[in-house]
Give the backbone structure.
Amino acid sequence: MNKVICIANQKGGVGKTTTAINLAASLATAEKKTLLIDCDSQGNASSGVGIDREAVRTKNLYHSLIGRVPLKDVVVSTPFPYLDVVPTNQDLIGIEVEFINLEEREKKLRNLLKNLDIPYDFIIIDCPPSLGFLTINALVAADVVIVPLQCEYFAMEGLGHLLNTLKLVKARLNPALVLGGILLTMFDVRNLLAHKVSEDVRKHFGNRVFNTVIPRNVRLSESPSHGLPIITYDIKSKGALAYMELAREILADGRV
């Protein structure tokens, strides 16, 4: 049985895609068969693992959602053992309008995953920075949600809205959905505010916050431009060590 993990936060720039790419790569490094699904029309999770978005222009997640091809036919192998990707591109931008009158449109992705006859240990879904159609589809399809939270002043802004959305999805569409944890990202040890945000979040959410903290790291920021997860780009960097530790925590923690 696979575990479907949704990486979600409607606030942009908090490390969702970075987390999706590098958590997927770290789980794959642990020899867990992993599928990374790029649910953001920007396609950054796709390019971040070396997928040429033009090469998948006619066969990607969009074409599966509209029923043109089965999901298994858009799965792309990567150079990394145990890691596959469902890529996307800008075709996904207008899908909410296309599906506006479709019944049970929130369940499209879940139904695709149900019919995916490729065995995976983990499926990681990278969501767009919104609480729109694609994020709701990801939440309905997921078993677990991980919320990246930036260690800066506005970190808590919008988190309440996301948690309320999780409650609504759980109540109406996906009773099995659980909050796997809040992941503190972009942590700068030299910044007193970062420490204060971390302290406040842990005080408020307790053990729902991961022990692992993702540091602000230049190598982590550079790796997507090379189409490489951080563990391939610079395995000795603080960013690589942090995401490998996150993968270890997830594999050892029964809540995920």
